[in-house]
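Practice problem: Hexokinase-2
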Amino acid sequence: QVDKYLYHMRLSEENLMDVSRRFRREMDKGLGRDTNLTASVKMLPTFVRSTPDGTESGDFLALDLGGTNFRILLVKVSGNGKQNVEMENQIYVIPETLMRGSGTELFDHITECLANFMEKMGIKEKKLPLGFTFSFPCRQTKLDESFLVSWTKGFRAGGVEGKDVVGLLRKAIKKRGDFDIDIVAVINDTVGTMMTCGYDDHHCEIGLIVGTGTNACYMEEMRNLELVEGDEGRMCVNMEWGAFGDDGSLEDLRTDFDREIDAGSLNPGKQLCCCRLPPPTHPPFSASSSPPPAPYSSPYPPPSSFPCSASAPPLPPPSSGSAPLTTSTSSSPPPLALCSSFASDTTSPPPSPTYICSTHPPSSASSPSSFYFPLLLILLLLLFFLLHLLFARRLHKMVRLLVPDCDVRFLRSEDGSGKGAAMVTAVAHRLAEQHAERQRVLDALRLSREQLLEVKRRMEGEMKKGLARDTHESATVKMLPTYVQSTPDGSERGDFLALDLGGTNFRVLLVRVRSGKRRSVEMHNKIYAIPQEMMQGTGEELFDHIVHCIGDFLEYMGMKGASLPLGFTFSFPCHQTRLGEGILLKWTKGFKATGCEGEDVAVLLKDAIHRTEEFDLDVVAVVNDTVGTMMTCGYEDHLCEVGLIVGTGTNACYMEEMRNVELVEGDEGLMCVNMEWGAFGDCGELDDFCTEFDRAVDECSTNPGKQRFEKMISGMYLGEIVRNVLLDFTAKGLLFRGKLSERLKTRGIFETKFLSQIESDRLALRQVRSILQHLGLISSTCDDSILVKEVCTVVARRAAQLCGAGLAAVVDKIRNNRGLQELSITVGVDGTLYKLHPHFSTVLKETLRDLAPQCTVTLVQSEDGSGKGAALITAVACRLKEGKK
Ligand code: 0WK
Ligand code: BGC
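Answer key — structure tokens:
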């Protein structure tokens, strides 16, 4: 007879698997932006994204409303890794009349209890941060704003559903006016429980409540949470799984008993998944009860969760004493700690074992004689404990059975979710403080429009000084004449050799120029390495190496012994008195070869060629890479009158009116000026924009005090600026939990290419992680990755803006030169940073539009490099020389 009754409550493994599949579908619906509204399991974002890292400290208040007891807690957290938490708490009654009265009365009562508690604790004068555990389904928009969706568990207070419960609490406190607190967070009890256990076990990523009600939460990947913007990191999701089945998806498994309990509940048809167990206040099998906990190991509960207890009379929830299901060996993933807070936590006496004597909870109902009652109590407690144990065992067994490849550990919360609420508040407090400190540091790297306009103004000033004969010497932006005065007219033709030295790669090129109808430029090139020891050895060795590469290239091209005109792209500041000469003023970009500064590099090259006696070349032109780039792009676009390099180094050139180039005789026409803007700031013009990180990078560079503008923009230095910011943040405990890795202390380890990768695609975070692992920061967290990305973004953005301010000064100079209201002009651009960084060009264009609104600037990326430009300049020079004959 009994079996007939219980038969429908027994579920097979297939049933349970099927329930789990149905459940997983509901979870996916809940996570989906378009399907959330119709999903029964609402998967509510909680805005809890971080877990305690042991640096939290301070006193925090916590309210815990919605379980068997309303509790107010004062939680003292001591940081600095000591991880000590002291708690004082007081339980207050929420009379049923208030549970079902008006919301105002309910919140007034809550604040009354709070005032009473703070009085007792002697903290009424303090404005402490507070975490509010409000264990009902809420739609949250941020950590401290949460709108009640619907009451459950017998609560029905009017005027609360649809309202922000933090607003209601703040209002009630304001109304009293005798104390003030800072409500930092409102959380669900499952979240509080996960946090409580997460404080001791960082693998704890799921919270489970099986008490008056039941629910679970877990840390979900942001990319799966469509209701919240952002793809990076994780956020805790309050599943509100109590409503599973409210759409009828459990109809085939529900029994008449379930339907009877539901029919008698305060919210028939709602929270059906909870209807398996009678609440303490109801006779067995009456409505609105909470189901036994669903054991699970993955974020997706296994099917057995609901009726698994059906095989025996309703069982109490698991005890945290349960041993971990399987000990995790290093090969298996770390055990997933699943915290279950069962209504009973050790701090307060276990709730009366409601199941058995639910008709009359022993504590309050009758006053049994002094002999029998304690015996009955012990028997009840024993039974209660046994039921706990049985429930826990069945739960764990189910988890093992249904998801055998997950290693799940159950952690029973001893301190209730109040501690968790305080932890969330402490973490939010820490994050807020850390965020403020990080933003304070990063703000120094953020430039306002006014500051950028000031950079532009100062650049214009230095440009004028560089052009003028009297002030040229003292100018930092040298505005070097290049003797490139004309552009190709299409009649150029012939084979030309070109060298391209000074960027990431040393290139030797053969450029075949055809004129007339077949007007075209054909190129062959080969890349050669310039070893560090050559860059910093003797000039003779360096130029012998260059000539060796030329010889190898000519052989490779089958042109051994050929004698061709050569264009030499030499991307360093050179003083020129004619096209075929280049007196090196100073090395930059890590080059330091001796015996070169002050020398004519064309001569150094010829000397080296003569030393080989293998071939001879006519060094016709020495050009800067900016000039070569302008010429390369100018071959296709005649509006191209500016060249820009943002690579290892940075620089720009443009066609200046001869009348303004006071270092060169003549006023007619134009001449290309190599600005060498990298040195802008070398006389302190940028000191008020330089940060401690810029100064650190400069001091450790091969040319301290030099190339200051370049060191805030170009690829050789951006990675180092980021590394120094990360070192500073780590030293302040704002990153990597303050743990510094030896590798991160290594200069040059954070390559600038990482900035481009980190900002490259949607999967940036995983890429950040792998880069951080490469840097020896194995245990970096999601938050760390997000922060590293933010630092990269800020540093790269500043570089692009500074570059934009410089370029705005150039194009406005040309516009003013020509007395134009509007100027349309093209800029030829090259350089690895500009080409590879996903946002650099966009920010540069934005800044340019903003700071030089009367100029329409087209930025054309050079595909052929400046070697082609050098060859074209050589071709023009040869044509002009021919023409003179
Ligand atoms: C490619 C040009 C070369 C220039 C380089 C700059 O052909 O002349 O020096 O770009 O970019 P980097 O290689 O330094 O990133
Ligand atoms: C050099 C310039 C060059 C720029 C880009 C700077 O360090 O001084 O001559 O144009 O780098 O390569």
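Discussion: The chain has 23 helices and 26 strands. Students who identified this feature from the tokens alone can consider the problem solved.
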